[in-house]
Amino acid sequence: MIYNLSLLLKKCNFKSIILKMSYKFSLLMLFCSLTINFQACNFIDLRQVSQNEIKKASEWSKTDQIPSYNECEKFKTLEDQKKCFQETLVDLIYSGLTNKELKSEEEVSSELTIQIKINENGNFSLDSVVDPNNIIGKIPNLKKYINQTIQNLPDAMPAIKTNVGLFVNVKFSLPIKIISNKLR
Fold first, then answer.
1. Phi-psi sector, 134: left (phi>0), alpha (psi -120 to 50), beta
2. Angle at 163 (CA atoms; ends 159, 164), nearest 5 degrees
3. Helix (H) or strand (E) holding 108
């Protein structure tokens, strides 16, 4: 038996059959992907975390890495690295301020506290100055010189919050003893 292909094509509309099959296949694929996505949601933990848990995880711990300089990394313990960093920082600030010409109309022997911020890139900035005895008012340009000295500090390696493995901003306080004689 010989079939006439053109007659067969007219009797059977293959185009509509293919379209109906591709539509059903698309619906089947959509159904399968939605089922897989909904099942995958069971693997994600969506529990609520309380503010206390967040605060506790964010607190500084003994294992967190403080900011540091390369020369302090040779020390094995965090305590020795911290001591090295603090001493290096004090030396840098002291040398930066002793290069400035500070003059006062009256004798000054007092202490102020500077709060320094080190950002997640290791850059220093002056956050605030606690000056209960108004030393800044007695020595012109003192705050400007302190700010310049802090801004000119070499970048440090930033602090690392070890429980999350991220660089973090830190603030710390540093007392500065100011002693000067009265100008004559």
1. left
2. 75
3. strand 108-118
- Rounded to the nearest 10 degrees, the angle between the axes of helix 142-151 and helix 78-98 is 130
Structural domain spans, the chain: 5-42, 57-180
For 85, the token pair is 């960093």
> What are the DSSP calls for 112-156, one per residue?
EEEEEEE-TTS-EEEEEEE-TT-HHHHSTTHHHHHHHHHHTSPP-
Q: What is the 3-state secondary structure (H, E, C) of 44-105?
A: CCCCCCCHHHHHHHHCCCCCCECCECHHHCCCCCHHHHHHHHHHHHHHHHHHHHHCCCCCCC
Q: Tokens for 105?
A: 């109309």
pTM metric for this prediction: 0.64
Grouped pLDDT means (10 residues each) for the chain, 184 residues? 52 52 61 58 60 67 82 90 91 87 82 93 94 88 91 92 82 85 66
